[in-house]
Structure formats: structure tokens, C-alpha cells
Amino acid sequence: MPVTRSQHPDPAWRPRVMGSIIALILLWPILVLSEFKPWVLLDAQSLRAAGRFLADFVPPAHSGEFLQLMLAATWQTVAMATAGLTLALLGAIPLTLLVTQSLSISRLGSGRMRLAGFIVRQSARWLLVLLRSVPELVWALLFVRIVGLGPTAGVLAIALTYCGMLGKVYAEILESTEAHATESLLRNGSSRLAALLYGTLPTAASELVSYTTYRWECAIRGSVIMGFVGAGGLGQRMDESMKMLAGGEVATMLIIFVLLVACADLVSTFLRKRLG
User: Fold this and answer.
1) In this structure, are residues 106 and 116 in contact, taking their beta carbons and an 8 Å threshold?
2) Contact 205, 196 (CB under 8 A)
3) pTM (two decimals)
4) What is the DSSP-derived secondary structure letter of residue 159?
5) Cβ within 8 Å of residue 150, ≥6 positions away
6) 256 burial via Cβ count (<10 Å: 0-12, 13-18, 19+)
């Protein structure tokens, strides 16, 4: 006699139901503490204000003078992101060499050498934690006070935060690759850099490039956000337009944001294909 599904219900339904109930019980106080009130969006006054603002989005601002201003602001935003990421790489690469255990020469030794290497590795790891734990917006606010308004604050903010992010993820990518070739090079007297270039990098290059271009895309978005605190670029222009409720200008800048991210994605795809 064939066994029907109804005679043997899913044995995991109780854990699933209990898990869902526990998740809801935990989620509710989190929503209360975060003051999450989506129904405010349906308020009649909010809907009227949003409708008036969105109606100004059409048509987007397209005067020659405004587009020329946007071109300069876009170039400043991309330059800020690229300069910040370049400085971040200058710090992240040496720190990656220090924290990546598979590239450690001291771990092949014993005694004091192994202990000293462990201390240096952990110190570099905590430095990366410190750098990435402070959001770039907070760094930007700090540097605006120190160096004044302008892109310099944004470049330094991106450099510090992204140095911590890149160093951490680079180390994780290198640790996850096959370590046999790298260890062989180190045991035969190779330096860390040579072991990286000839042992680890050939298999991890595609993933490293993909993550780096993704971070460049994030840096562009971050540059826009930091413009709201006086770091220049598109963000500062958008802040001015938002305060004046110039919907057409905001629409044009949103279109530019989308195009910038799309271009970054194309660059990432191109580089991955070249390395593949």
C-alpha cells in the first residue's frame, strides 16, 4: 500500500515553527528600539510632501551650465574615491603580509621567533580592526575639523576605513587558497613578497581584483555621502539641491550615481575576464 504524504508530515515542522516564533519574539524589541515606523510613510501630509518633491524630478535638470557643474563634481567624486582607495592599498598590502598566517616565516620556526611573529601578527590584526571599526563618515567629520572643507577630508577618511577593510578581506582570501606552493617557497628561503607573488597570488588574483573593484564602487558611493558633511563632490551639490527642494537637479544627480555604479561594474567585469 503506497504511503501518502499526509500520513507522514514533515518531521521538521515543529523546529521551524518554534524558530519562527523565537525570531519574531527577538525581532519585536529590536524594531521597537529602532523606532521603525513604516506607517509614517502613509501619512497624508507625508504623501503630499513626497508627491510635490517627486513631481519636480521630471524633467531632470539638463541646462548646459548645470551639466558642466555636474561634470566637475562627478570628476571630483571619482578622484576622491580613487585617491582614497590608492592610499588604502598602500597601507593594506603591507598589513596583509603581516596578518596572513600562510605567509608567515616565523611560524615555520620555533620558540621566540614564533612568539614574536604571533605578537606582530595580532598587533597588525587589531590595527585593522581599529581602522575599519570607525565609519568613513566619522573620519570625514573629524578630518573636516582638522583640514577644513574639501576633498582632502574625504580622501583621508576613505583611506583609513578602507585600509582596514581591504587588509582583513585580503588576508581571508589568501588564507583560503591552497597553501602548499606558498609554504614550499617559504621553506626554501623565499621572502614573504616572493611567496605572495609566485605562490598565492596566481590562484587568488581574480578574487582580489573583484573585491578591490567592488570596494572602489563602495568608495564612490561613500564619497557622495561624505559630501553631505563638506567633503566636496556630488554629495555636497546634492545636499545644496535637497535643501532648496530642487527635484530636477536631484534627479539628474541620481542618474549620475546609477551611471557611476554601472561603469564600476563594467570595469570589474572586464578585469575579471582579463584575469580569467
Assistant:
1) yes
2) no
3) 0.77
4) H
5) 230, 231, 232
6) buried
Contact 234, 255 (CB under 8 A): no
Residue 74: Cβ-neighbour burial (10 angstroms; 0-12, 13-18, 19+): buried
Instruction: Give the contacts of 93 (CB within 8 A, at least 6 positions apart).
Output: 170
Rg (CA), the chain: 25
* 157, 233 contact by CB (below 8 A): no
CA dihedral 248, 253, 259, 265 (to 10 degrees): -140
Domain 64-275, what architecture? Answer: Orthogonal Bundle (1.10)
Query: What own/partner pairs with CB < 8 Å and gap ≥ 24 does 61-64 have?
Result: 61/246, 61/248, 61/249, 61/251, 61/252, 62/252
Q: What is the pLDDT of residues 124-141, one digit of tens each?
A: 889 999 998 988 888 888
d(CA 228, CA 79): 17
pLDDT at 242: 85
